[in-house]
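Training component of the fellowship. As part of building independent skills, the fellow (R.M.) carried out the full modelling exercise for a liganded target. The chosen ligand was S-adenosylmethionine. The inputs are recorded below so that the supervisory panel can assess the work.
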Amino acid sequence: MEKIVKPYTVLTGLYDNLMEYVDYEGWSEYILDIIDEYEIDTNSVLELAAGNYKLYQFLRGNFPLHIVSDLSLNLVKTFHERGDKSVCCDMKSLPFNTKFEFIYCTFDSINYLLTEEELFFAFNEVSKVLKNDGVFTFDASLENNSINNVKELNRKGKYLNYDYSQISEYNVEDKIHTNKFIISNDNENYIEIHRQRVFHFVDYFRILDDAGLRVIDCFDTFTFDNASPDSERAQFIVGKI
Ligand SMILES: C[S@@+](CC[C@H](N)C(=O)[O-])C[C@H]1O[C@@H](n2cnc3c(N)ncnc32)[C@H](O)[C@@H]1O
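Fellow's submitted model of the complex:
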C-alpha cells in the first residue's frame, strides 16, 4: 500500500540524486553576474524556496546577511543537520521584519504557486520585504519547457536505499505540469505528487505590477538576451514601482 505524502517529504532523501544533472555552480555564477550587472547592494540577501541549498553551497560567504528559506520542513531539517540555519516558511506569507536588498528564487520554484492569487500573494510578500531600491530575481518555467522536455523527466532510478520512478505529464488545457514520484524506501512505498502551474509569459508582468513590482528586464535564463513567450525559462529582474 502506498502512502501519499506532501511534496519534498520522502523526496528530500533523493534530492541530490534527482538534481545531479543540474549545474548549480554555473547557476550561482549567473546569480552573481546579475548582481554585478545591476550593481545590486548585497548586505542583506534572502533566498526563497532554497530546496536542498545547492546554490547556497556556492553563494555562502558572499553576503553579510544571507537568509535561506524553504517551505519543506524536511529540507530545512536536513540543512540544520549539516550545521547551517534556515527558515521554514511559505513564500506567500513571509515572516521577516527586516528588509532585503536582494531576493532570489530559482529553478521553477515560482511554478509551485498554482493560481494567479497565490502568485500575487507571493509577489506582494516580496514587495513588503524588498528595500525600495532592492532587486528580486526569479526564473519561471514556460510552456515550451514543459512541452520540449517532459519526456526526459520520465525516469526510474536507485539511490542509497531508495527505488523510485518519476512520471511527468503536462496538461495543455489546464496548464499544469505534474510530476508523480513513486518511491520505495526501507520496505515502505510512498507517492509524492508535485503540481506546477505554467503561467503565460505576460501574466507575470501583470501580476507583478498588481503587487507593486516592475520588471526591469526579462531574459532567457542563463543569458542576458531578452526572453519572449517562446522561451523555455524566463529570468525576471524585478524592482519596486
Ligand atoms: C524545484 S525545487 C527548487 C529548489 C531550489 N531553488 C533549487 O534550485 O534546487 C522547488 C522548491 O520550492 C519549494 N516550495 C514550493 N512551494 C513553496 C512555497 N509556497 N514557499 C516556499 N517554498 C516553496 C519546495 O519545497 C522546493 O524546495
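The panel noted the following from the submitted structure. DSSP finds seven helices and twelve strands in the chain. The chain has a mean pLDDT of 96.
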